[in-house]
Write a structure and sequence with these properties.
The complex is a heterodimer of chains A (572) and B (164). By secondary structure, chain A is of the alpha/beta class. Classes of the chains: A alpha/beta (572), B alpha+beta (164).
Chain lengths: 572, 164
């Protein structure tokens, strides 16, 4: 079959099973857009800014099990998308980003809308390619999809100069069913000896804890993790990215750990004697002061990325492999094992944990006349039966979402954990809704973050995406304000959001429904009303208490046992 | 500690910048880097000299291995190996005394004088980094006009080898 480069590109996407592309046209990709016009198998979602295309593809990937696909033009199309690519890279999200480039003959001449895409995206993508010949499009894209979705997933950029997609130049095409890359062979199966050593260490523990991360979600290992934790009867804590990997409503779950983790989770980390780290990467927001991290613990670490092992914390038993595969083997060994955890010691350990839990570290003022942001999220959890897809932006609301929306299932919580990208929530929610039509999708955000990609309300109207936007509006960049209150003598330098728009009118002008909620008594009613409007986007503008802070908090440079507690929690 | 790492990498545009970019992005230092294609035109061999604690070197090798274009690597420092570097050095040799001294030093260090002018000698010298440094020190007061070094190359001794 002889096809043009543009035809090959679109045909390849069909053959690869791509159903949806998030993009924005421009000069260098016009040949490709012309091919998209001629077909209706692949749905194209036209965003309003290329950053949103990448975030939407990200949300789509996190909740569909398929890689997200982005199509943008050269120059500013690429630079706008970079924030979204870097976001996906930090959170290991499978994505293929196809970028237009100026024609090969003028590359390097500072042509109109030219940037060095491969150079710019090199440090924020898993890999990238420049395609110089139409004959290479199919094999390069196949490599890109393979790289994006295997091993530790991540975004892969494929830069395609305009002449390579020239409709006048036809070359042979056949879909490459397989691809082999001699330099890329990620290890899936864990080393059997290491797994045996890990199991015997775990069974010798007196105060074990599972520290679970985003790798559990990416690997589809939530069931294996749950089975392992229940079989052992040990406590589980999770990173921000790992939430939903173990049911949050289960007694064995201690909540999130780290900077805004629960008292019980962080204390259990500090006191544990065996730490079972699963698909987590010992991020600085999790470990706190590295010298005092889990001072008494032997550490088992399961991760598919060898470079994540012993990067910041030296581990005792590293296991490189796919989390689900390794956990499955561990479960097999445990089932056939004669030995078991010392139940007396385990009972004492749980008694200690329950005492920590009794501090009720997430307590907040329920009698306030102002709307408490935590209350909104608790009500949201109730009303959606804990089963909605939740996206967030970045800041205080993100931490409250992690603390108060209790995720029982994986792939339900979509947040920018690594890069911490404000503006992520709304476009990510679009991708989630497109991947899950008919499901409840809420974007928990703040008046700061939402304005970073607010233009996507237009996209939502075009494709009738019935998102529920939970805007926790405290008229402050709340997390900045909190740090300024704690560490900068309450000098609120540029953290106040002055001259805010009327969000109700704004939503309405985009064709959506807007509701402003000022009193705690109206919170539940407004949420119920919003979720009853199944086919409308509803922008809920909650005017919240301006002074509320996120607790507990481990200040930068402090250890797990040095938490600042909420004035409402019970001191022990 | 000083480590000398040999890397087989896909001979593709941008492969070198991936390695260099990794080092600058993660704050690792590169003491020297030399690269050229191998007998297999699809592969380049790179020799990289770096310094760091054991933990940093472990991260460096892991991060290098993680680069998709890196096919294979070997930390030569882990075993017996041969290390060589070439230096071309142009010195002033105007007076008889200078000319004799440079010639004598070049002989002692088993170097060759490649180019002669009325007032200069250009010497070629091969050896490990320490030997080349010693030659420069031995020149003493003789003015050096320019120095060019290729960076260290290394190969394991004996039957051990880095190949596909």
């Amino acid at each position: 079959m002889e096809l043009s480069g543009a035809e090959i590109l679109v045909q390849f996407l069909k053959d690869e099973g791509v159903e949806c592309v998030f993009g924005y046209p421009g000069g260098s990709v016009l040949h490709i857009y012309d091919e998209l016009y001629k077909q209706d198998e692949i749905k194209h979602i036209l965003v309003r800014h290329e950053q949103a295309a990448a975030h939407a593809a990200d949300g789509y990937a996190r909740t569909s099990g398929k890689p997200g696909v982005v199509l943008v033009t050269s120059g500013p199309g690429v630079t706008n998308a970079v924030t979204g690519i870097a976001t996906a890279y930090m959170d290991s999200i499978p994505m293929v980003v196809i970028t237009g480039q100026v024609p090969t003959a003028v590359i390097g001449s500072d042509a109109f809308q030219e940037v060095d895409t491969v150079g710019i995206t090199r440090p924020c993508s898993k890999h990238n390619f420049l395609v110089k010949d139409a004959r290479d499009i199919a094999s390069t894209l196949k490599k890109a999809f393979h790289l994006a979705t295997t091993g530790r997933p991540g975004p892969v950029v494929v830069d395609v100069p305009k002449d390579v997609t020239d409709p006048g130049v036809k070359v042979p095409y056949s879909y490459p069913e397989t691809i082999s890359m001699r330099s890329y062979n990620p290890r899936v199966k864990g080393n059997a000896r290491q797994i045996r050593r890990a199991v015997s260490l775990i069974l010798s523990a007196k105060r074990p804890i599972i520290y679970s991360g985003g790798g559990v979600i990416l690997s589809g290992a939530a069931d294996s993790l749950t089975e392992l934790a229940r079989m052992l009867g040990v406590p589980v804590t999770s990173t921000l990215m790992g939430l939903g990997g173990y049911p949050a409503t289960d007694r064995q779950f201690l909540g999130m750990l780290g900077m805004h983790g629960t008292y019980e989770a962080n204390m259990a980390m500090h006191e544990c004697d065996v730490l079972i780290a699963i698909g987590a990467r010992f991020d600085d927001r999790v470990t706190g002061k590295i010298e005092q991290f889990c001072p008494d613990a032997k550490i088992v670490h399961i991760d598919i990325d060898p470079a994540s092992i012993s990067k910041t914390v030296k581990v005792d038993i590293p296991i490189v492999g796919d989390v689900d595969s390794v956990l499955t083997e561990m479960l097999q060994l445990l089932r056939n094992s004669d030995s078991a955890l010392d139940q007396e010691e385990l009972k004492l350990w749980w008694e200690l944990i329950e005492r920590w839990r009794a501090t009720n570290c997430l307590a907040y003022d329920h009698d306030s006349e102002l709307i408490k942001p935590q209350f909104v999220i608790e009500k949201l959890w109730e009303i959606t039966g804990g089963d909605a897809f939740i996206t967030t932006d970045v800041g205080q609301h993100q931490m409250w979402a992690a603390q108060f929306y209790r995720f029982d299932k994986p792939n339900r919580f979509v947040t920018s954990g690594g890069l911490g990208t404000m503006g992520f929530g709304l476009p990510a929610a679009m991708g989630v809704q497109i991947a899950n039509p008919g499901s409840s999708v809420a974007c928990i955000t703040g008046e700061g973050s939402i304005q970073m990609c607010i233009q996507e309300l237009s996209t939502c109207f075009q494709y009738m995406l019935p998102l529920k936007i939970i805007n926790l509006n405290n008229r402050y960049l709340g997390m900045v304000r909190q740090w300024q209150e704690f560490f900068y003598g309450s000098r609120y330098s540029h953290s106040y959001m002055d001259a805010l728009p009327d969000f109700v009118k704004l939503a309405e002008s985009y064709g959506h429904v807007g509701i402003c909620i000022q009193s705690p008594a109206d919170v539940e009613g407004a949420l119920r009303e919003a979720f009853s409007m199944k086919d409308r986007l509803v922008f809920l503008d909650f005017i919240t208490d301006q002074t509320e802070n996120v607790y507990p908090m481990i200040a930068a440079g402090k250890a797990h046992h040095e938490m600042e507690m909420s004035p409402k929690s019970v001191l022990i | 500690m000083r480590h000398i790492i040999s890397i087989l990498i896909e001979n593709e545009a941008g492969a070198l910048s991936r390695v260099a970019g990794l080092f600058s992005a993660r704050g690792y230092n590169i003491e020297s880097l030399s690269v050229a294609p191998t007998e297999d035109a699809s592969l380049s061999r790179m020799t990289l000299v770096t310094r760091g604690s054991e933990q940093i070197i472990e991260q460096i090798t892991k991060q290098l291995n993680k680069l998709v274009d890196v096919v294979k690597l070997l930390d030569l420092t882990e075993g017996e190996h041969i290390e060589r570097e070439i230096m071309l050095i142009k010195v002033r040799a105007a007076s008889n005394g200078e000319r004799e001294e440079v010639k004598r030093l070049a002989d002692i260090f088993r170097g060759h004088i490649l180019d002669v002018s009325r007032v200069t000698y250009t010497v070629e010298l091969t050896g490990d980094t320490r030997k080349l440094d010693s030659f420069i020190r031995a020149l003493g007061d003789i003015p050096i006009l320019e120095t060019v070094r290729c960076g260290s190359m290394g190969i394991p001794r004996g039957e051990r080898s880095l190949h596909l």
